[in-house]
Design goal:
The chain is about 65% helix and about 5% strand. By secondary structure, the chain is mostly helical. The strands form three sheets. It has a two-stranded antiparallel ribbon with strand order 1-2. Helix 3 crosses helix 4 and helix 8 runs antiparallel to helix 9. The N and C termini lie far apart (about 65 Å).
Length: about 450
């Protein structure tokens, strides 16, 4: 690890950005929670909140080391090098111009939101025990190695890093591949293994609370400024460009999505506005530091229009990607990552020229290989993990629990206690049950 002079301004910005990124996970809980039916809102939100606990600890114990330790053939870091983050405490180790612990905290919040995103593909049907187990396994065996591939620059935290950033020289500012494409591909694998929800393609499964969805969208957008701009690791002109691009891309994507909706369905919707904004945020995640503001707007327009079309694929192919993780995050991540090959501006800090700036196809093929490599690895590993869990502890709640509502079955709670029936739980010696009583009695 390189010992440099720590800059207090850069450190303050990175710690602030880490807090913003952490806020994105409760924001995602609201976003996802509003999109499911009313009897599954608590379970959906708990999938995000439990990820903070499981991933936060697993990241400190071994995840950071796998992601940022000395590389083993460019594939993963030494899992013992920074175990428990203990080596970062002594002395004054720095990553660039910030304390190493600040960098580890920032990246840990990335890991948390990455795992939480995965839950959108299997809403309302995966057992909470299996999800909790998967959150740790996916962090250690899928996300951390991919973070090493994409984020571990040679000499940044260790002598050698991952193959995508150092050998392929693909550009990914904040996780268009390692987070967005990886989650989309992994979510697709999970949806295939679990199968669709009961009544998929026959019963209406509309979002039950668009107010929660809009609130979650606002929190995600707010946190995304730290997500992207914090990835500059400095409080300077590059962070300013990324901040502006993180504003403009979702603005353009939201309008593009609503335009598609208006032409296709006859009316723009609040869900379309929220989904379009998220699609633009996803697309600018890899490209925010490599394109101009005009480039960010073009990427946003493309992401909004393409993702609005892509979310219908699940009905055509019969794969119940419940909350459009594939259609928004994987497709949006591909648009943003490949878009760098077309729109990279050599005036940015990357100094890379895309096809439209005279750079030819050189950067374009690198971006495409990064997408293909990350997507293939994530799909294969997630499918394997899901199959193992299915054959050992089971991955899906019973049909009776799914029909009655996963909140009551998994948590013995209801998201909305507005009627005459209340629920509570007690556990005696070997007995667990739920009491139903009339509030008027």
């Amino acid at each position: 690890m390189v010992e440099l002079q720590i800059n207090t301004g850069d450190t303050a910005w990175l710690l602030t950005s880490a807090a913003l990124v952490l806020l994105m996970t409760p924001g995602l809980a609201f976003f996802y929670g509003g999109m499911v039916r009313s009897n599954g809102v608590l379970n959906m939100m708990m999938m995000s909140f439990i990820s903070i606990g499981t991933v936060g600890l697993a990241w400190a114990v071994v995840g950071y080391s796998i992601a940022f330790g000395n590389s083993v053939h460019g594939l993963f870091g030494n899992p013992f090098q920074f175990a428990f983050l203990d080596p970062l405490v002594a002395g004054d180790p720095a990553v660039g111009t910030v304390p190493a612990l600040a960098f580890a905290a920032f990246q840990g919040c990335f890991a948390i939101i990455a795992v939480a995103l995965l839950s959108g593909a299997i809403a309302e049907r995966m057992s909470f025990r299996s999800w909790t187990t998967l959150s740790v396994l996916w962090l250690v065996l899928v996300y951390a190695p991919l973070a090493h591939w994409v984020f571990a620059v040679d000499g940044l935290t260790a002598t050698s890093g991952g193959w995508i950033v150092n050998r392929l020289h693909a550009i990914d500012l904040a996780g268009g591949t390692a987070i967005e494409v990886a989650c989309g591909a992994g979510g697709l694998a999970l949806a295939i293994v679990l199968g669709p929800r009961l009544g998929f393609r026959s019963n209406p499964m509309r979002p039950h609370n668009m107010t929660l969805v809009m609130l979650g969208t606002g929190l995600l957008w707010f946190g995304w400024f730290g997500f992207n701009s914090g990835s500059a690791l400095v409080a300077g002109s590059s962070a300013a460009l990324i901040w502006v691009n993180t504003l403009l891309s979702p603005c353009a994507a939201m309008l593009a999505w609503l335009f598609v909706e208006r032409r296709r369905d006859g009316h723009p919707t609040s869900l379309g506005a929220a989904s379009g904004a998220v699609a633009g945020l996803v697309a600018i995640t890899p490209s925010g530091g490599a394109v101009s503001p005009m480039g960010a707007m073009l990427i946003g327009l493309a992401a909004g229009a393409i993702c609005a079309w892509a979310v219908s694929w699940k009905y055509r192919f019969g794969v119940d990607d419940s909350l459009d993780l594939v259609g928004v995050h994987m497709v949006g991540g591909i648009v943003g990552t490949v878009g760098i090959g077309f729109l990279a501006d050599p005036r940015t800090a990357t100094h890379v020229a895309g096809l439209f700036f005279g750079g030819g196809l050189d950067q374009l093929w690198r971006q495409a290989v990064a997408v293909l490599g990350v997507g293939t690895f994530s799909f294969a590993m997630t499918w394997l993990l899901a199959i193992i869990l299915k054959r050992t502890m089971g991955v899906r709640v019973s049909p009776e629990a799914e029909s009655a509502g996963i909140d009551l079955a998994e948590h013995s709670e209801a998201g909305y206690d507005l009627g005459f029936t209340q629920q509570s739980a007690f556990r005696g010696i070997g007995v667990g049950t739920t009491i139903h009583h009339d509030a008027q009695e």
